[in-house]
Design a protein that fits this description.
8-stranded antiparallel β-sheet; 70 strands; mainly beta; 4 helices
Length: about 900
């Protein structure tokens, strides 16, 4: 057998190429061998990684290598002075089939370290496929900070047997042909691993018989939305493999493709995947020597809607089922005549996504998605599923096929059990009729089996449930300025004449199972549009009613411009954007240097910082949204103001809401500048010092002297209380402690703007129930971390004033004391100790001839005391109540209403009702 020695010693080294940012000539990729590194080597240079940061690689090109024809040998000297780990390691890709060695998307055999806990320091033989790898064998060769030179000799025979330093470590079960394009050395380290790794490639040789090598195409699979991957064994010509006309899926050619040596990735139009049975064909493919290969054809089966159904749900195993393992599971069922490979399919439980491994679900077969192997005796199982996501509360479950489309979906609830006892645990939910794809209520019930469920077999509740429910519209969405997508509750049959927009018939309707994409000759109107759909049928003949849907649509507009930092602006539009290559943004005629689109927002950076607190003009030209609307130019003014301490104040907090209701935090713009509420952090510390943080990021501008209310439930707060200011929905507002804690408000740079401390016990000396009562800041100039600066909102204000001036105010910046009544110390203790013995009622007026009546009533409306009757107060008067009735008796502890009526000289009256709390010790 003739031998071909590809390169040796220094010649071998000289043919390596640099790749990436770290291993470059300027960083001394190759260095002279020193006695410390390789004292016995006669080579002139070795691979020096002393200046490499993070991860990098170098590669050596191979040509005319056919690994299946003879023995290949690699020889390296390696020194590794750091203990190998997941962050300090090396890989040598012995031969890799990829045209781009910098890519992570390759297939290769390799040796390497730092792979897995317990064997980090062991040299292992690996097989890569894309970004995934399998450990084929772990050797006894250790890289554990010994600083010794390791001589590595690796061999592979044509039969697929691998030897490392003369010992057989692995034999491939079915040796196949491989494309061998590169040897690649990859190294990864942290600062502790710097200077730790040196490698000297010494020899690479292979034997080649010169026999003709036959390549083949095999193992096609659907790998994504519109994507099919066809595997290649051996070398085929790039020209024939890269011609899209040589491939078809159900007679449709791909729009594009990628030839990656060992595989061809084909991208087809989405509509090509509307059939369960897909025939992939390849023709006119040749080997590298020009020999034409046999035409290839393979039938792929992809589950469509209803081809696999969610058939049974065990969501509660406490108490345990009577005669089943106490394991949660989801049972899926294949009612078709097809066998499906579930690789690249997904199962969703809420926001949790589980990717199926390569596993077959054959015709008529059941499969269990679970966590434990204790269900293996009942049916085929797939594991590593986090069953904590299957809970008794409402949960949406979905099966998604390889193209990203829904195969089956439902939201289950305990009500579906139709049995209060069984819904408490130990019984599964069973689908009654697996052929009824759309009904949930009426098609699910508790298992009738005494074991508690029927995993892997026919459901105990199996019956026919007639589908007589007509389709209805679930949602509508705008695709572009003359195209609408309508989603129905069921698969439907429809034509263009059934769909009208603003009285005009659709010019084109594309139906995809349960959705319609309808195009119209006229563009959508600005404002309200009306979509009317005549009765349409589902697949079993149920007819919908005449349906009219209105929706809003607006042309592209600039909503806001604010400074996200001292050099970056955010332009906010009313629609998501699709910028053109000619879109440009300016500040005072200076063009931006960076552009980043985030939905309806565009963040643009400038080389020069903005002038602080100056009014500047921002503009943009040639803007386009995703609906096709365009703006030639827009402009707006903004002020860059770096928020400082006390620019924004915390003014009110509801930390202990009523049961079923939500908390809120009120803030106030205490500066003279509009402030954008983007990237502000709310930090909460509980009484144990544990920290919770949430970032508020909205397009709202908080105007000077304006309040904003931040809450997870704006609708609920507005229904419960009288509100004002900005209402900001923020689901991640930290959960405040019901008793005590502290809240800190930070700007985008982490600087403290304001903070507060609250303590329910200290602020509520009467120990009254303050659930549902907010804590208000009594003075804007008071130290907010002083407990005395906060009081619970009064009953007269309905116990909270979100977005409005507080019911307790010492010095409100938004109102004067004219024509007002203020209670200075509404919680008082008339016990003669000289502290808080009286409540003070301050009445002020803008007219110096004003008279006032002041009376006290208990919580039942019974009159207890008169403090003033038509008393002239001038512009200001103070009245004191010591807690006694008109008869001189002490009043009981409780809540009292202070009634004040002012009468001006022209006879105009104002009535005020305030609250105080009398507490007798």
């Amino acid at each position: 057998m003739p031998s071909a020695v590809f390169a040796q010693s220094t010649d071998f080294i000289a043919q390596w190429s640099n790749s990436g940012a770290g291993w470059t000539d300027s960083n001394r990729l190759w260095a002279e061998v020193s006695s410390d590194a390789f004292p016995e080597s006669s080579a002139t240079y070795f691979c020096d990684t002393s200046r490499v940061n993070g991860t990098d690689r170098i590669y050596h090109s191979i040509s005319n290598l056919y690994p299946e024809t003879g023995t290949i040998k690699w020889n390296f000297s390696v020194v590794c002075n750091a203990k190998n780990s997941s962050v300090n390691n090396f890989k040598i890709m012995l031969f890799a089939n990829d045209s781009v060695p910098d890519s992570d998307d390759y297939s290769a055999f390799a040796i390497g370290t730092g792979l897995k806990t317990g064997i980090y320091s062991q040299l292992c033989l690996l097989k890569y496929s894309g970004k995934d790898f399998d450990i084929l064998a772990a050797t006894d060769i250790m890289f554990d900070n010994t600083k010794n030179i390791k001589e590595l000799e690796v061999q592979r025979t044509s039969a697929g047997e691998w030897f490392i330093n003369g010992e057989s470590v692995y034999t491939e079960p079915e040796p196949t042909m491989y494309v061998a394009d590169y040897i690649t050395i990859e190294y990864k380290h942290t600062a502790t691993g710097n200077l730790a790794f040196n490698i000297l490639p010494k020899e690479f040789s292979f034997e080649y018989t010169g026999n003709t090598i036959s390549a083949r195409l095999f193992g096609a699979c659907i790998t994504g939305k519109g994507e099919v991957t066809l595997n290649v064994d051996g070398r085929i010509s790039k020209e024939s493999a890269s011609d899209a006309a040589n491939y078809s899926l159900n007679s449709v050619n791909p729009d594009s493709l990628r030839f990656l040596g060992n595989r061809v990735v084909l991208y087809f139009p989405a509509e090509s995947f509307n059939s369960t049975q897909l025939t992939l064909s390849a023709k006119n493919i040749t080997q590298v020597d020009g020999t034409k290969m046999a035409d290839y054809q393979e039938v792929l089966y992809m589950p469509l809607f209803g081809d696999i159904v969610i058939n049974e749900i065990m969501c509660d195993v406490s108490p345990s089922p009577a005669n089943l393992p106490a394991v949660k599971y989801i049972e899926i069922f294949n009612p078709t005549k097809y066998d499906f490979n579930l690789k690249n399919c997904y199962f969703l439980a809420g926001d949790y996504q589980y990717a199926f491994p390569e596993i077959q679900l054959t015709a008529g077969e059941y499969m269990l998605i679970c966590r434990s192997d204790s269900l293996d005796a009942y049916a085929k199982t797939v594991k590593k599923f986090d069953d904590s996501k299957i809970v008794t509360k409402n949960k949406k479950l979905s099966l998604i096929n390889q193209a990203g489309n829904i195969v089956d979906s439902l939201t289950y609830t305990l009500e579906l059990y139709n049995d209060k006892i069984k819904s408490q645990g130990g019984y599964s939910l069973e689908r009654i009729d697996p052929k009824n794809l759309f009904m949930v209520e009426g098609n699910w019930t508790a298992s009738l089996d005494i074991a508690g469920g029927t995993p892997g077999r026919v459901n105990s509740t199996l019956a026919t449930v007639p589908d007589n429910k007509p389709p209805c519209i679930l949602s509508t969405s705008v695709i572009d300025n003359n195209t609408i997508k309508i989603v129905f509750s069921k698969n439907i049959i429809v034509d263009a004449s059934k769909v009208l927009l603003n009285g005009k018939v659709s010019t084109e309707c594309t139906v995809n199972l349960n959705s319609i994409t309808a195009k119209f000759a006229n563009q959508l109107k600005e404002g309200t549009n009306t979509l009317k759909i005549s009765p349409i049928a589902d697949f079993v003949g149920n007819l919908s009613a005449d349906t009219s849907v209105t929706f809003s649509y607006y042309r592209l507009k600039l909503v806001n411009v604010y400074a996200a930092s001292n050099y970056q602006l955010c332009f906010v539009f009313n629609n998501d954007l699709s910028l053109t290559s000619t879109s440009v943004f300016f500040v005072e005629n200076t063009e931006c240097s960076t552009i980043k689109v985030d939905g309806e927002k565009v963040f643009v950076g400038f080389a020069k910082s903005f002038v602080k607190d100056s009014k500047l003009t921002a503009s943009a030209v040639r803007i386009k949204d995703i609906y096709g609307n365009a703006l030639d130019s827009v402009s707006s003014t903004f002020v860059y103001h770096n928020t400082e301490r006390f620019d924004i104040l915390i003014t009110e907090v509801l930390f202990h809401p009523l049961s079923g209701e939500k908390r809120f935090l009120e803030i106030y713009n205490n500066s003279p500048y509009p402030i954008p509420l983007n990237q502000y952090s709310i930090v909460f510390y509980d009484n144990k010092g544990e920290r919770k943080q949430s970032i508020v990021n909205t397009e709202y501008l908080l105007q000077p002297q304006q309040y904003a209310v931040i809450t997870p439930d704006t609708a609920g707060i507005q229904e419960r209380y009288t509100c004002g200011g900005l209402m900001i929905q923020h689901s991640k507002l930290p959960a405040f402690d019901n008793t005590r804690g502290s809240i800190v408000l930070l700007n985008a740079f982490g600087a403290v703007l304001d903070s507060m401390i609250y303590d329910k016990t200290e602020s509520n000396t009467l120990e009254i129930n303050v659930q549902g009562v907010s804590l208000e800041r009594v003075g804007f100039n008071r130290n907010s971390t002083d407990l005395a600066a906060w009081k619970f909102a009064t009953s007269a204000a309905d116990y909270a004033t979100p977005g409005l001036p507080n019911s307790h105010t010492e010095s409100s910046p938004s109102s004067s004391l004219s024509n007002s009544v203020t209670i200075v110390n509404e919680l008082f203790t008339p016990d003669g100790d000289g502290y808080n013995d009286e409540v003070e009622i301050v009445v002020s007026s803008s007219n110096d001839d004003t008279a006032a009546d002041v009376s006290i009533y208990d919580s039942n409306g019974v009159h207890r005391c008169t403090l003033a009757t038509r008393t002239n107060i001038g512009t200001y008067a103070s009245f004191l109540w010591n807690g006694k009735s008109d008869s001189g008796d002490f009043c009981k502890s409780g809540i009292y209403v202070i009634y004040v009526k002012t009468i001006s000289p022209n006879g105009k009256t104002n009535v005020y009702k305030k609250v105080c709390v009398l507490n007798r010790k």
